[in-house]
Amino acid sequence: MKAIRLYAPFDLRMHHEPAPDIGSDDVLIRIKSVGICASDVHYYKEGRIGTSVVEKPLILGHEPSGVIEDVGSTVQNLRKGDRVAVEPARPCWECELCRAGHTHVCRGVRFFGTPPIDGALRELIAWPSRLAIPIPDNVSFDEAAMVEPLAIGMHAARVADLKGGETVAVLGAGAIGLSVLQAVRLRNPARVIVTEPIEERRSAAVKLGADAALDPSSPDIVGRIIAANSGREPDVVFECAGEPEAFTQACTVARPLSTVVIVGIPSEDVYCFPASVSRRKELVIRLLRRSCGEAEEAVRMVEEGRVDVKSYVTHTFPLENTREALDLAAAKSDGAIRVVVHVS
User: Fold this and answer.
1) How many Cβ atoms are within 10 Å of 305's Cβ, its own excluded?
2) Against a cut of 0.85, is the pTM above it?
3) Which segments of 9-47 are extended strands (E)?
4) Angle subtended at Cα 315 by Cα 67 and Cα 295, rounded to the nearest 5 degrees
5) Which CATH superfamily is domain 150-287 in?
6) Per-residue pLDDT tens over the stretch 43-84
7) Domain span(s) for CATH 3.90.180.10 in the chain
8) What are the percentages of helix, strand and coil residues in the chain, rounded to 5?
9) Which CATH superfamily includes the segment(s) 2-146+309-342?
10) What is the pLDDT of residues 134-173, one digit of tens each?
C-alpha cells in the first residue's frame, strides 16, 4: 500500500508498505478521504506539539473515512463494502476513566497521527470495529472525514452546558470553530458572534448561522463584539483559534461569572490568560480534550441535514500531493477552510 511518512519538519516521503494485519475484532479500512487538521500542520512545520515529538517517521492524518475491505473473525456489526467514518482515538476501555465514560482522557489512548501512532494518510488501516461508524449513502466520504471536527464542536457545546437562550462568542472560524458554531446553534442560543481574520471564513460563518462575523484585528474588537451582542458581554465564549491574542480576547470580552471554553491548540505549549481580568470576573475556564462519544451523533446530524460540513471542504488533493495540501492548510490561503486528501 502507499503511505506518506513525515521524517522531520517539511520532510515528507512516499512509501510502499505491506498492508496491516487485522485482529479478530478489527476491520481493515481502505481510506478514501482524510482532512488536514491544524495539529497535522504543527507536526509538518515543527515536528512536535508540546511534549509530543516526531522521533521516527510518522504517518499523519486523523480525520479519515473509507470502505471496509475485510473484517476480523469476531466482527458482527460490519461487513466488507460498508462505508464508514472513523473515530481516531483508541482508548484502553479498561481504566477507571474509561469505565466512567471519559474515554477521551484515557491515559493510554492511542490517537491517529500522534507520535508514535501512525495516522490515516495511507491506503489501508486496521482499527477496532467499534471505532468504525457506518455512514449512509447520502453522506459523502469528504463529509464523513469532517465527522471528527464536528464531534469536537459538539463536545465543546456539551462541556459548556448550554441550556438555550445564552449569548455566545466563537473566536476562530476554521473547521473546528464552524463546528462549534453549528453545535451551539442546535442548542437554541439567543445570539452567536464569530470572530475570524480570514474573509472567506467569516462569510462561511454567516452562512452557517452566525448573527455577526467580525475581523479580530479590527480596532477595539472587544467593544465591537459587545456592540454586536446588543451591548452585552457574552454568556459563553469559545476560543477556537489557538492564538495568544484570542485567549486574551476571550477572557476580556466574557461577562463576569461566565464560562470560557478553550478549544484551540496553541503553537507554544502554554496558555496565557490575563490574570487580573479573569480573576476579577471569577471566570470558569474549561479546557477541551478532543471529543467523547459524539461521533455517531455527528454522523446522524450530517445525515439529517441539521449541520453542513460539506462546505468545510474547500480544496482536495491526491495522496501524491500531500505536501501541497499541507502547505495550503498551513498558509490558510485561497479561502481554504478544510483541505482534504483523497487517498484512494
Assistant:
1) 8
2) yes
3) 11-16, 26-36
4) 45
5) NAD(P)-binding Rossmann-like Domain (3.40.50.720)
6) 999 999 888 999 999 999 999 999 999 999 999 999 999 999
7) 2-146+309-342
8) 30, 25, 40
9) Medium-chain alcohol dehydrogenases, catalytic domain (3.90.180.10)
10) 999 999 999 999 999 999 999 999 999 999 999 999 999 9
